[in-house]
Batch of 2 targets.
Target 1
Amino acid sequence: MRVIFNEEMRQVADDMDRIAGAVSQAIKTSGKALLEPNLDAAQEVIDGDQAIDQLEGSIIDQCVRLLAKQNPVATDLRVIVSTLRLAATFERMGDLSRHIAEAVRRAYPDPPLPPEAHDLFGRMQDFLNQMSDRLVAMLSDRDTKVAEQIIIDDDQLDQLHQQTFDLALSDEWTGSKQQMIDLVLLARFMERIGDHGVSAARRVVYIVSGFDPTKDPKDLEDID
Amino acid sequence: MRVIFNEEMRQVADDMDRIAGAVSQAIKTSGKALLEPNLDAAQEVIDGDQAIDQLEGSIIDQCVRLLAKQNPVATDLRVIVSTLRLAATFERMGDLSRHIAEAVRRAYPDPPLPPEAHDLFGRMQDFLNQMSDRLVAMLSDRDTKVAEQIIIDDDQLDQLHQQTFDLALSDEWTGSKQQMIDLVLLARFMERIGDHGVSAARRVVYIVSGFDPTKDPKDLEDID
């Protein structure tokens, strides 16, 4: 993220790259845990969450110290505040990935979902994996156009989310009650990861360019 | 909240009281919407959410302006950052209350939950109502002991949350598939409101006293 931040924010930039990478990894591995299903992958995500939390803590500490420096020629304060919120958004995405992994682990040795749900959840995971790659890319190449694509694709993710409910209510559904409960939870976790991804994309656009072309600037401070 | 903040933060204090009051109202009215059920109450919560979002936006704008003032004798920057996060937490509690109301409205004219779920959800709502009152009280009387009670009671809320799953999986369950889906969602929304309440309580303790006796200070910057 050094291409976006000035020298003063260099350490924060490096930590932001680390947290984005760790969260991208957590999202992809939780998808692997869910869809194969794979217990080792689930445990990997659960074990990896602490590092994400620590990175967030470190980034926030550094942002607060920068705010305290009171140097009028320094980084725009709104950028520092947005960075703080972006780190928190990443941390929440990591938590949601961990919740997915925990659901897989709880269900074990049963599969968390019945076979007829696989296609739908596979497609949702494809969106999340693509979104993760785009977010990581945005931090290193300042490509704010990518943000528009993340926002557009999230609508499709929301539609797939709605379809999981239709599936559970249909005659096609062969799952147990526990699997229905897990379907609702897992679909929600994934939908929330997507929402946070949109939030993160908007914040990166704001940090890079100083504005969000799709929203009232005040709304940029929304934490989802 | 003027008893907690200095003169410089007076406007922020008043807005924080307003947002806490509006969120407390939203939590209680969403409970009424769910348990009676009551469509007008649901609509009231849905309509009232915009005001909460606007208050959060205003509080954040003011905090950023205060951060920009760079006055070394002014409010501790960590307090300003914590206030920003507290406002975001309240806003999220408002959103979750709106999600509860939207589920009630979607289910109408069917009740969102079958009769056997009423007792459990009623008890969960009692906890949320009590927590709301305590949060509002904390902001006006600096009573940080109340925070401990909020934290303890949240464990009980989590237990009730687990019991909703047991109920859905039991022979006692008479609900439709849609009602099972709504049970999982509603229980999660309520559990998340409780989690955010704990977060909010910890932040108020930090703002009042400068420390959280139960956690590493770095973790205080967690946004849930």
Target 2
Amino acid sequence: MLNLLTENFYNNTKTMKYSFKNDYSEGCHPRILERLIETNLAQQNGYGLDEYCLEAEKLIQQKINNPKAKVHFISGGTQANLIVISSVLRPHESVVSAFTGHIFTNESGAIEATGHKVHGVETADGKLRPQDIQEVLDVHTNIPHQVRQKVVYISNSTEIGTVYSKKELQELSDFCKGKNLYLFMDGARLGHALTAETNDLTLEEVAQLVDVFYLGGTKNGALIGEAIVIVNEKLQEEFGFHIKQRGAMLAKGRLLGIQFLELLKDDLYFKLAAHANQQAMKLKAAFMEIGCGFLTETFSNQIFPVLKNDQIEKLYQNYDFYVWKKIDAEKSAIRLITSWATQDEIIERYIQEIKKL
Amino acid sequence: MLNLLTENFYNNTKTMKYSFKNDYSEGCHPRILERLIETNLAQQNGYGLDEYCLEAEKLIQQKINNPKAKVHFISGGTQANLIVISSVLRPHESVVSAFTGHIFTNESGAIEATGHKVHGVETADGKLRPQDIQEVLDVHTNIPHQVRQKVVYISNSTEIGTVYSKKELQELSDFCKGKNLYLFMDGARLGHALTAETNDLTLEEVAQLVDVFYLGGTKNGALIGEAIVIVNEKLQEEFGFHIKQRGAMLAKGRLLGIQFLELLKDDLYFKLAAHANQQAMKLKAAFMEIGCGFLTETFSNQIFPVLKNDQIEKLYQNYDFYVWKKIDAEKSAIRLITSWATQDEIIERYIQEIKKL
Amino acid sequence: MLNLLTENFYNNTKTMKYSFKNDYSEGCHPRILERLIETNLAQQNGYGLDEYCLEAEKLIQQKINNPKAKVHFISGGTQANLIVISSVLRPHESVVSAFTGHIFTNESGAIEATGHKVHGVETADGKLRPQDIQEVLDVHTNIPHQVRQKVVYISNSTEIGTVYSKKELQELSDFCKGKNLYLFMDGARLGHALTAETNDLTLEEVAQLVDVFYLGGTKNGALIGEAIVIVNEKLQEEFGFHIKQRGAMLAKGRLLGIQFLELLKDDLYFKLAAHANQQAMKLKAAFMEIGCGFLTETFSNQIFPVLKNDQIEKLYQNYDFYVWKKIDAEKSAIRLITSWATQDEIIERYIQEIKKL
Amino acid sequence: MLNLLTENFYNNTKTMKYSFKNDYSEGCHPRILERLIETNLAQQNGYGLDEYCLEAEKLIQQKINNPKAKVHFISGGTQANLIVISSVLRPHESVVSAFTGHIFTNESGAIEATGHKVHGVETADGKLRPQDIQEVLDVHTNIPHQVRQKVVYISNSTEIGTVYSKKELQELSDFCKGKNLYLFMDGARLGHALTAETNDLTLEEVAQLVDVFYLGGTKNGALIGEAIVIVNEKLQEEFGFHIKQRGAMLAKGRLLGIQFLELLKDDLYFKLAAHANQQAMKLKAAFMEIGCGFLTETFSNQIFPVLKNDQIEKLYQNYDFYVWKKIDAEKSAIRLITSWATQDEIIERYIQEIKKL
């Protein structure tokens, strides 16, 4: 992976380069701005007790058909992960994640900073299976000299673009219940997962199969915001304290409530994710046409084509993206991410470039 | 103090009540929304490496006349406090605060959750003086059985509306340097402090006298955002890691950069704070006219008039505010906060009510 | 208080000075050494699963007439305090202590280092009363912006030598149950408390009135060791993990088990404490005879006579002790501590010195 | 690995079984008991400021020929690991360990509980090499989204009985200096490493090549105790605070000082370790004679012969040990540990049993 620091300093707006580096390069969907303008001067209570947050919670409860679920809005994914996990675990308990899991490598030790071990597991496709977790349990039987596994962390879609099938999530859910483990789904890209061409899960089913999850806004058209949905009533108690203690309780929580209200009231949320996926699939098709392979087969808004170094150089002249993984001396896999904001013209233009390779 | 939970659930927008409960009841200054619209579709780097954050940092460096200062934008005050303090302290070091300091009682143990003790000090007016800190040092000489004091936390304006004079801050700064303590200013309401009628400090002087401080946006016209300014170069090292680890690094950092750029480019920031102060001073004058006293004498956007219970009842019929402190069986002090958004008509209408008391 | 660091470097064994500085200046009661010799080569399981720890647990269960209590042996008081408190509290919960409580000032931030706030309360005599705790609860109603109090920490005897009466402990216990607070007694000097001339509590009653407590060995004839007794079954679960995680699980736990077995099998533990108390009371009587007053009235093994500076100088020529608190320009209170090892000759010799004052 | 809990409850002293389960099944070397008796009633300062600790520090400084090194005595290995690592690291920094490292799996998350990530590395023989660490550094370049590696943790002898050669430690030391990493050696069995038949390192060389290490007493004839030696002056500052804060500062530190003084004054420490190694090597030779292989080739006091299940059953009738790892359906590796207390008769008797296999 390239060093994001140097990469990030590369300022793509001063050039003509279009960026496929991530799905948070733009601001937010225009309807959100309109709604912010309309509501701007209405006085509201602070700390997530405004009308918009309360309505947005009701809306999510309806969509998952569970009025007992509790919903909390916070600003980002790492924050959601550390608050949920540290609120659930006792000091000697740990969390299991895929090696590719965001909490394992990309949060600067955020979970460990709350006092808990994260077990990394090698996976083929970024998805955890019961056997992966069982192997961790099997080598942690030396009580009380080893930590107790208590939370299983999964991402859907995963950090490498794959999505869980209903069967896979059902098996994981059954396994966790049987082993007295909590199942937590990082849904920073849940919209993309649930609108992927191969997906057979509904939001309601996700809510039935996990103990807690979140609906990501930041990567799907919001300025900021993730909606944490706590389904398991045992985990709901006093959650507000944890949000406040970690510095995640916005004085103007309205900013979060308004956005989710707008994104969810008519499924704009899923339309935007579906759009991102479709744009990625067009690129995938174009790469396949020229006989190029992929690091992992994906159906959401991230693709990882494997290209020759000179092909990468060519594409890099007019487009910005990450070189994800070196395959060998001649080849590397690159990562291309599309978003709610990726226009057709861009995709068409890029496909022409691919054909030229 | 009333229980904010029950209070907050009281939904003031469904009634005609106008709220003086806090300075974050509205959205943001319209110019910020305009700027968000203009910049919305420009692609930018994530994590605070966008053009707006970089420009806003330069702008602040110019305003404090210190190009070596480092600026980081995050979403809220509790977050700023816990990140700054935990990044500075070693495990056995502690922070000194007034009992009224936000970190001491109103952050749900956020500082302790990062592993550090907060020493509370009784003060007359919410402001720390060298003698207050010396008294803490004097009873912590039993090395290594007691924590080592290393950071002094002050708020300007304070949580009870008072402001530091140049002489007071100079003395505190000299004392801290002499005792090898870092001086950290919580500037959630720094704009209000620096535009208070009694203020004799400039922003540049504040930056010269403290090691680290922040400029609050949330309570002064922004949707969210505080600008942490690290003046002491020893404290600048690797600060980004701490922001990320605490879940405070926004993917769309642009949201913060754009707001501070807009607020600071032509001193809108100070104009908004001055407006809030003026509105509060008009109310103060009206209360003085009817011979009412105050819990503390303030010149910023918070006032604490002491009223008879029946007078409080009357005002409460059409206005929302907190009853701050019970004085005796007949009297209590209430807290009224004005903001950048408090219109003249509201103030005039309220003054009429005061006169009727 | 004098600076213990410099004080401690003063090496009293190279002079003829006898030390009243604390009750852990000597090794251990000879019977413990005999028992260590007898058992030395017997092979035993590690980590507190040896025969001696298991028998000592049974013995304590019998003494408190509660076979369901769980007993864990660790090496010291600060360790006992941090493990018990951090195992009980969730991240947003806090503990209430007297300002004089060991956890508040003398453990180098050990409790905060586990993430929890310690509320300090001013007391007349080092003992907490329901009203003291109620006052803390009263100013922490702003949910979820303030921490939730969950544990009440008391010491018996206290750090200033006072002891709880049955009535006082009963009231505290009732109050805590009513407020859903756990009551934790630091018993580093519990032997001294229960054998004090004014005491009317039994060990069994202590175990009935608190949720968890410990029996101190270090200050009462053992080489090291405190026996944590968890009475409340809710707090017993998985406690071993916490001991291990904090580095407190001795590979040779037998060292702790053997000592408590020897101290408790025939009440040697209480005989040693009673001896220490009696020696202190002889000194107290002598000081009273010469009309000297005391900082607090005590009946256990610590006394705090208030003396003129020149009198302190005289005593200091041949004896080592701490000057505890300056009373005024002419007077200070000193602290004298006696122990299981303080011989009659020493006491008699010292009484002669007192009479000469 | 068998579940140590159930294993441990198996009480070997009630049977004729001799235990090879670990090297802390007995008390301590008789000379230590004699010394405890001699010194028992001498009054000493508390908290490690007694004469014995001060002398023992000098003795260690002489043995490593470094008068500037600082020595601290604490009770156990997990405690030493967590205190050293948490005192060195800033919040965003991490430690690298072999998967077999004690801190990675056998300390119930003690390091993570202090807020830091432990990176596990696969190794052939429990020893870290520069390339292993470089691979961790290579995948953590995404600043500041990933933790910063700062400490390298190694054990000598390792948890699986192997020892570092001078060349290996020199290479590791050079690498760490070059990468600005601190090298920390867990010496719970350092005596055994330095007296192993294949060892070519001296204690002085170890002290020159690492930044901090400890000399283990618990597993080499002491009742309890590890001597932490801080060579790097940057890491010495205020270390006492960390010991106190973690509850590791014994009131009667004398207990630790006396033991190390006795073990080190005439190299008893190394004689005991050499004895343990020799006894293990005799068993190793016997197993080799019957053509049995080993999980890892060791020259210290731990051996891991691979046996058929029925052979294990036979040995288990009269001896206690751990079945370490299943090799296949027919075979497993067992762990046998000898100690300073393992007598020749036991070894001879056991060798007869091996021959019968």
